[in-house]
Specification:
Layout lengths: L4 E5 L1 H10 L6 H10 L4 E5 L9 H10 L4 E5 L3 H10 L3 E4 L20 H12 L3 E6 L3 H9 L4 E5 L1 H5 L3 H20 L3 E5 L7 H5 L6 E4 L1 H10 L1 H12 L1
Parallel strand pairs: 1-2, 1-8, 2-3, 3-4, 4-5, 5-6, 6-7, 7-8
Helix pairs in contact: 2-11, 6-8, 10-11
Length: 239
């Protein structure tokens, strides 16, 4: 089987830290443990409300952790400035709305896209790989390609939330068809959102899938089995 990479999202470690506004659990140590346990990439979403990851977390991990750092960020001048300062290895541009509990779906890639195109160009020119978080729809993937993205990350939320073999198969087919198009357009292929130990394997087996970005389920399992074991188990499942 192909060696699908695992990006471990550590946002919710920072959520726990922020509950007391203290130093622990330290995202730097979490990143190190995750990488040592088999993670291929550390994923962080710096939100405008700073509900979990803080600016300092990005800087400290960039400076003190030897590994691939992947920043999820919204389309804004503030986040553009931070990305160009921190210079993560890659950036995924995601939609973000006030008050949402978690990301609700892929980017809206209809209408005027001049600002997004400019953001993609600036980040790419800085030597940072650019990914766009998109729903598994042909039009979104074509637009991502036209905007100059290196990668598309397919939103798997509908697949993850589907119940019953019929609905799950339907959503998995949507992901597979989207992957075929991404492969034809020579876009690198990632997926994530809602994936866990029970539903990640079929997505990992999609042709051309390079990386799954998973956070909440790994951090939740880590409460019971420890972070090292939780990361190692997910890596074993998807590779």
């Amino acid at each position: 089987m192909r060696n699908v990479k695992l990006g471990v999202n550590i946002d919710h470690i920072a959520t726990l830290r922020q509950a007391r506004k203290e130093k622990n659990p330290d995202p730097v140590e979490v990143a190190r443990v995750s990488l040592n346990a088999g993670a291929d990439m550390i994923v962080m979403h710096l939100r405008h409300d700073r509900r979990h990851i803080q600016d300092e977390d990005l800087l400290r991990i960039r400076e003190n952790v030897k590994g691939i750092i992947h920043l999820e960020m919204s389309q804004s001048k503030e986040m553009e400035k931070i990305a160009l300062k921190v210079r993560p290895d890659s950036v995924c541009i995601v939609p973000e709305f006030p008050g949402e509990v978690t990301t609700q779906g892929g980017l809206n890639l209809s209408g005027k896209l001049a600002e997004l195109s400019n953001l993609v160009k600036k980040i790419s020119n800085a030597g940072i790989e650019v990914s766009l978080f998109v729903d598994p729809e042909p039009q979104s993937i074509r637009v991502a390609h036209n905007l100059g993205a290196d990668t598309v990350e397919l939103c798997t939320s509908k697949y993850a939330a589907s119940w019953g073999k019929k609905l799950q198969t339907k959503e998995l087919e949507r992901l597979q068809l989207a992957a075929f198009l991404a492969n034809e357009l020579n876009l690198r292929l990632h997926a994530g959102h809602g994936l866990d130990y029970y539903n990640a394997v079929p997505v990992a087996r999609i042709e051309g899938m390079e990386c799954l970005n998973i956070g909440f389920s790994i951090i939740s399992k880590a409460i019971f089995v420890g972070l090292r074991n939780a990361v190692a188990e997910m890596k074993r499942l998807i590779q």
